Amino acid sequence: MLFESMVKAIALLGLMLISAQTAWSAGIGLYETGAPDLGTASAGRAAMAADASTVATNPAGMTMLDRSQLMISRGAMLPSINFDRGSDTKVPGGGGGGGNAGVFFPIAGVFYAHKLSDRLWLGIAADSVFGLASDYSQNWVGRYYLTNSSILTGQVNPNIAYRGNDWLSVGAGFSFSVARLKTQAKVNNVLPRFGDGGLSFESWDEAFGGNIGILLQPISRLKIGLTYNSPVDFKFGLHPFTTNLGPGIMAALKKSGLLGAKANLSMTEPQQTMASALYQFTPNLALMGNIGW
Q1: Domain, as residue range, for 138
Q2: Which has the closest alpha carbon to 49: 138, 152, 130, 159?
Q3: Dihedral angle, C-alpha 267, 33, 225, 208, nearest 10 °
Q4: 156 pairs with which residues across the strands?
Q5: Region 33-37 average pLDDT
Q6: What's the CA gap between 235 and 254, in Å, rounded?
Q7: Can you list the positions of beta strands (E) in the chain?
Q8: CA-CA distances (angstroms) from residue 260 to 13, 166, 253?
Q9: Predicted TM-score of the model (pTM)
Q10: 149-154: average pLDDT
Q11: For 86-127, what is each residue's pLDDT tens digit?
C-alpha cells in the first residue's frame, strides 16, 4: 500500500513537470475594463464611440469625438468559486471543499484619444484584456492538484483612425501584451511524519497582436461598428520549484531526471470578431446590441 501510494505521488509530480500537449478549454469572456460601457453590459460597445474608451473597443470611433479626451477607469471583481466534495471521494489525507476560491481582482484602464484634425486621430489604451485568480484552503481535498493559481495580463494598444467621409471611418492598431502565469499545488509525501511537500511554477511572457475597426453611420441615428482582434500567443517556460519533498520522492525524481525538467506551455488569447449596432430613438433612449465570435 505504501509503495503504491508513493508511485502515484511520483507519477503525478512527474506529469506536472513534463511538457504539456495541446489542451482545449471553454469559458466566458467579460469586457470589463471599468469603462462606462459597463453600464450597458458592453452592448453596442463597438458602435458607441461616446468617449475615449473607444480607443480599445473600436478605434474608428475616435473620429466621432468632438475633442481630445483622457479617461481613467477603475473597478473590481470578486468571483465566487466553490467546490462540492462528493460523498464517495477518497483522497489520501482527506480534506474539505476548500471554501470560496474566488480572489478579489482589481480592473482598470487608461484611454487617450488625440485629435490631429477633423479627419485624423491618434489614440492609446493601457488596460488588462483578461485575468483571474483562485486560492483554495490548504486543507482542500484537491490540494495535490492545485492550491492556488493566477494569470495576470496587461497591454498597451496604440491606434490610428481616419474619417473618410460623413458615414465611414476606419481605424487600426497593434498591442504589446505581458502575462504572468503562476500555479501552486501540494505534494503527498505519503509518510505522515514528513507532512505535505509543495510544487509551484511561475513564468512571464510577452506577445504582440493587431486590431482593426470600421464605423458606419448610414443615417444620423444609426451607428454600426465592426471590429477584429488578432490572436495573441503566449509561450510560458515553467521551471518547477519544490519544497519539503520527502527523501523517497526526492531520490526518485533525481534518478529519473524529472526534477530539473522544464514544462513548456503555450496559451492563445483567441481572435475576436464583433459587430455592434446602436440606434438612437431619442436623446435619452437608444437600442444597442452585439454579435460576436
Answers
A1: 2-292
A2: 159
A3: -30
A4: 126, 176
A5: 80
A6: 26
A7: 69-77, 105-115, 120-127, 132-135, 148-163, 168-188, 196-219, 222-229, 232-238, 241-243, 263-269, 272-282, 285-292
A8: 12, 62, 9
A9: 0.82
A10: 91
A11: 777 777 777 888 889 988 888 889 999 999 999 999 999 999
pLDDT band at 67 (very low <50, low <70, confident <90, very high): very high
How far, in Å, are 43, 51, 103, 272, 273 from residue 291 at the CA level?
9, 21, 30, 11, 8
Contact indicator for 114, 150 with CB cutoff of 8 Å: no
Q: How confident is the model at residue 26 (pLDDT cuts 50, 70, 90)?
A: low
User: CA nearest 161: which of 109, 227, 71, 208?
Assistant: 227
Residue with cell string 467621409: 165
Please give the Cα distance from 258 to 13 (Å, whole number): 9
CATH for 93: 2.40.160.60
What is the number of domains present in the chain?
1
The C-alpha cell that represents 115 in the structure block: 485629435
- Rounded to whole angstroms, how far apart are CA atoms 146 and 24? 19
pLDDT of residue 21: 53
Q: Which of 164, 161, 179, 192 is nearest to 65 (CA)?
A: 161
Q: Are 124 and 112 in contact (CB under 8 A)?
A: yes
- d(C-alpha 55, C-alpha 46), whole Å: 10
What single-letter DSSP state applies at residue 271? P
210 CB neighbour count, 10 Å cutoff: 15
